[in-house]
Amino acid sequence: MYSEKVLDHFHNPRNVGYLEDADGVAQIGDPECGDYLLVFLRICEDRITEARFLCRGCPAAIACASVTMELVTGRHVDEAWDITDEVIVDALDGLPEGKLHCSNLGAMALHVALLDYFERKNRPEEHAGGEEAQAGGRSQSDTA
Q1: Per the CB 3.0–4.6 Å rule, which of 55, 91, 93, 136 could disulfide with 3?
Q2: pTM for the model
Q3: 83 burial class (0-12, 13-18, 19+ CB within 10 angstroms)?
Q4: 144 assigned to some structural domain
Q5: Contact assessment for residue 137 and residue 129, using Cβ atoms and an 8 Å cutoff
Q6: Rounded distance, CA 45 to CA 41, Å?
Q7: How far are the Cα atoms of 27, 59, 80, 101, 139 from residue 142, in angstroms, in the given order?
Q8: How far apart are alpha carbons 114 and 92 in whole angstroms?
Q9: What pLDDT digit, counting tens, does each position of 6-18 carry?
Q10: CATH (domain of 67)
Q11: Residue range 112-140, pLDDT digits in tens
């Protein structure tokens, strides 16, 4: 059974959508099958000012992505590293045992997007093509 918070984030997901000119982008999962999460971060002076996501998956996956975007918005990038799957599960008042892997999707996508931000920040000339090119070729299997 899902908690009220999980159901709320599933029925009313926050921060859904594509973010133009994102500073950090991550694609986790397989868009052909199973849960799939695309995360976009806008970061100003190392503070996450906006976070959005696109997700295809079960109610738990969508709720985890939604609450992750809420948790990360307004945080310094160093603080964002502390958002783990356990933090996500706690923010949703728990998940059924068989759905705990969905929280990993949110935390992993966040961390990959942060890594993308740092890479872009340190080597901006390599990322002149924008996040569309980055999102299309970056997945969990590519970054592991």
Answers
A1: 93
A2: 0.83
A3: buried
A4: no
A5: no
A6: 13
A7: 10, 26, 22, 19, 5
A8: 22
A9: 999 999 999 999 9
A10: 3.90.1010.10
A11: 999 999 999 887 666 555 544 444 444 44
CA distance 142 to 144: 6
The catalytic residues are 33, 102
In Å, how far are 41, 54, 67, 85, 137 from 90, measured between CA atoms? 22, 22, 10, 9, 32
Number of separate domains in the chain: 1
- Cα-Cα end-to-end distance for the chain: 32
Considering the domain boundaries, does residue 142 fall inside one? no
Task: Answer yes or no: is 39 within a domain.
Answer: yes
How far is C-alpha 18 from the geometric centre of its chain's CA atoms? 12
CA nearest 120: which of 53, 32, 21, 29?
Answer: 21
Pairing relationship of beta strands 24-29 and 36-44 according to DSSP bridges: antiparallel
Judge whether 48 lies within some domain: yes
CB of 60 closer than 8 Å to CB of 89: no
Give tens-digit pLDDT for 50-81.
999 999 999 999 999 999 999 999 999 999 99
Residues linked to residue 56 through DSSP beta bridges, in sequence order: 36
